[in-house]
Fold this protein.
Amino acid sequence: MLTVDFTRFPLAPGDRVLDLGCGAGRHAFECYRRGARVVALDRNAEEIREVATWFAAMAEEGEAPAGATATAMEGDALALPFPDESFDVVIISEVMEHIHDDKGVLAEMVRVLKPGGRIAVTVPRYGPEKVCWALSDAYHEVEGGHIRIYRATELLARIREAGLRPYGSHHAHGLHSPYWWLKCAFGVDNDKALPVRAYHKLLVWDIMKRPLATRLAERALDPLIGKSFVAYATKPHLPRAAAAEATTPADS
């Protein structure tokens, strides 16, 4: 289940991609299939081992084209172990709401992104997320849980302040908001409640089969109750005058 829409966020074969806070690796796997040179980074060692295992299985099955590469590694989003301007593309999906220093994370992403490079940021949408917080403290008051809820305008302002230029946005996963509301209402750890189990089966069926009916339903629901807000931005090239000034030694 992808949150980033690759029709709005195109990849070229050979693009160097950082999936920051990759989790289970869903976006990293898609980038690998599209021929990118992918680095999937997360601080969770167990998830990184699982992502590395899947990368190896994909390579063995020939799921990625020639030239594509994939690496899974542990790392700190606030101190990325890469030189400046290392990546053509950076994806950070459902991560920034967990991190206290979100400005620091954005600064690190901008640092490792090449001029002209593209970035995709996804976070839980304000309205559906507020409902979850209102229904259940346990939904967010856990170690490593959500510490803030972004309004779209706030996230876009953060992105601009970091020196990026937003060029598009949308909402995703309209079918998933009711599931999380049910989870919060019946208990986030209570997967046995009939409404929760029934809705989960619907979501699994939708993910596996992708029938036209649910695709149309989600397309209609996304603008209204889409669970995620997705923003796309580019890192502008430094103007020639500024670039020359930056590379000229200062007078002593």
